[in-house]
Amino acid sequence: MTTISAKSVAELRTKSGAGMMDCKKALVEAEGDESLALDLLRRKGLQTADKKAERATAEGRVYSYIHHNQKVGVMVEVACETDFVARGEDFESLCSDLCMHIAASVPSPVSVSAEEVPEDLIAEERRLLMDSEDMADKPEEIRDKIVSGRIEKFVKERALLEQEFVKDPDLTVEDRVKAAVAKVGENIQVHRFIRFQLGAD
User: Fold this and answer.
1) CA-based Rg of the chain, rounded to a whole angstrom?
2) From 30, 63, 160, 191, which residue has the greatest number of CB atoms within 10 Å?
3) At 98, which helix (H) or strand (E)?
4) Residue 146: which residues within 8 A CB-CB, separation 6 or more?
5) What are the E-state strand segments in 5-140?
6) Residues 73/66, Cβ–Cβ less than 8 Å
């Protein structure tokens, strides 16, 4: 049996945000392999988050971030179940991460979820793709398949929760939220956000 040191448990806790006992169990199950243990914790966190997803979120906070160049600013509304969690460090860290992600992400997100990406934006992108030079000589059914695939990618790139998390591209923003849910033990929902950039429409 693999011996799990307190140091490796502490390191996994720092990386994952999970509790000490959960980290130790994951490391034992992964036979000391930290990356496998992280995956196990991530899966457990996602399962925990999914179970809590229907619980009411009447508390939370509006969090803001201004980039050091004073040219980009973000406000995000994030909801949770209790004021106690809303005032906690873990929740604040999540809000801060979300704001910094929205400020730094390219392309900038336009909605929280894929379902909320504006239809007119999708229609315009579809039109541009259909009219592009590389589509001109392709049969219509092939064109439709290619464009549908590109539209799916386009939507994912513009929906906040679907984007690769800027601080860890192995995670999506949704994974980051679900990790916070697992850590604080409450449902957390990103309700809305706005990004300001100097000189942008």
Assistant:
1) 20
2) 160
3) helix 89-104
4) 129, 135, 138
5) 59-66, 72-80
6) yes
95-121 as b/e: b if 16+ CB within 10 A: bebbbebbbebeebbbbbeeeebeeee
* All residues at 6 or more sequence positions from 106 whose CB lies less than 8 Å from its CB, including other chains: none
By the 8 A CB rule, do 98 and 173 touch?
yes
pLDDT tens per residue, range 106-140: 889 999 999 999 999 999 998 888 888 877 777 77
Give the residue from 103, 101, 104, 94 showing the smallest Cα distance to 61.
94
Q: Count of CB atoms within 10 A of residue 170's CB? A: 11
- Read off the tokens for 28: 């034992």
Question: pLDDT by residue (tens digit) across 33-73?
Answer: 888 888 887 777 656 656 666 666 789 999 999 999 899 99
Q: Which H or E run contains 3?
A: none
Calpha distance 120→160 (Å, rounded): 18
For residue 134 the two structure tokens come to 């590389």
